[in-house]
């Protein structure tokens, strides 16, 4: 009985870790002018429980005789032993209906599973045949904001085909639109095999966090460390002197003679600072003015 319990345990661990891994893969953070802009394409937003990820498992856009299927993705780094479930959210295309029918899917699932092992697939009609080209794999995707001067505008996910088609890529711009979803409608081509499209989605809107006062600075952290070490020194020394040496009263504090004189030392230091400050003011007041050159007209 005990030997069969390890399978449910592994499944339970996977179920707990899948949401965490998926969300972490779909996050992007950008810092600009003391503000941090957080994007999460997979987080649930109003009327869109899967974020910018297509509920059908893919997006489809067509221009002239070219058809493009893609899924918005960011990365595939993470928990590989539960990769099947993670791919359903943040990596591969999933065709629940209307799968592509074309030739040339060797690096993207093969003829029987065309498109199921890449994040972007392009179909072009060549001499009457639909020929497929892999445009992107999530493992080689790059993410950046659309406009660094206005990071809240949205982000661009660029998926690279990798070694199979090194000159091919797809750039998907997810533009911030809070109330509804539009697109993708357009498909543009530049260079040999670089395509771009855009969509408007609430998930393209960042959560902006002010950088002022968020977290401890280096000086504050250093002061806290010194105070903690000082407290540990006083507490440890007092316990040692109390239990090991049997000392009682104010003498239980380590170096108590020195700490008793600290207020007096501070008072003397304040008097000296005040004295030298007044002395400097008097010197500046009695200093003769600097004579400048005069010109005669």
From TrEMBL:
Residues 1-24 form the signal peptide. It is a single-pass membrane protein. The lineage of its organism: Eukaryota, Viridiplantae, Streptophyta, Embryophyta, Tracheophyta. Keywords: Membrane, Signal, Transmembrane, Transmembrane helix. It comes from Brassica campestris (Field mustard). InterPro entries: Autophagy-rel_prot_27. It is found in: Membrane. This is Autophagy-related protein 27. It comes from the Eukaryota. The chain crosses the membrane at residues 216-240.
